[in-house]
Amino acid sequence: MTDARRVFDEMEVKDVLVWTTLVSGYARSGYINRASEIFHEMPVKNPISWIAMIAGYMRNGLSNIALKLFSRMTALWILLDQFTFSRCLCAYARFDDLKRGKQIHAHLIRTNFRANTIVVGSLVDMYSKCGNLGYAQLIFYRVNDKKEVPGRFRFQDSTEYGLVPKFWNL
């Protein structure tokens, strides 16, 4: 990262992509504090910048800080995408925070967000890990092509709760 930082410092023009790449590089290398400093120094951020920082916190075991940044992102009306929702739903599942997970789900509904398999899988995962298998199953059954929802979401948590895999009949 030292070489990357040297090149960054020598650049005359630094666009949002360059800043985001540096943030992501520090976060991936485990230097999350430095990544955060650079993120906060960024003169302009785009949704990818925010996602890079959220992903960095998640990767470094700081899900609670990632979720705070997500809350700030929504308060600032930053455009949210499938990856942002998926990362945050996974974090809420990790913390067994059904209330906040439901808030994201409600946001998806209110904004008519067209959920893809990544978001649907994350919703199924969040609800099942938070112990609400009824909602997990309901969301799963509303998917047109159930084979598109990754298998790890279908079976992992149902077996943890003593249910057989046929719970997710395909």
Q: What can you see in these coordinates?
A:
The protein is an all-alpha fold. It has two domains: 1-79; 82-170. It has helices spanning 2-10, 16-28, 32-41, 47-59, 63-75, 82-94, 98-110, 117-129, 133-142, 151-160. The longest helix is centred in the first third of the chain and has 13 residues, at 16-28. The protein is elongated and about 55 Å long. Residues 164-168 have low confidence and may be disordered. PPR repeats lie at residues 15-49. This is Pentatricopeptide repeat-containing protein.
Tags for this entry?
elongated; 2 domains; 69% helix; mainly alpha; 170 residues
Low-confidence blocks of residues: 164-168
Beta percentage is: under 5%
Mean pLDDT: 83
State the total count of DSSP E strands: 0
Shape: elongated
Helix % is 55-70%
Helical segment tally? 10
Biggest sheet character: none
Terminal Cα span = 47 Å
Structural category is mainly alpha
Q: Order of helices and strands, N to C?
A: HHHHHHHHHH
Domain count:
2
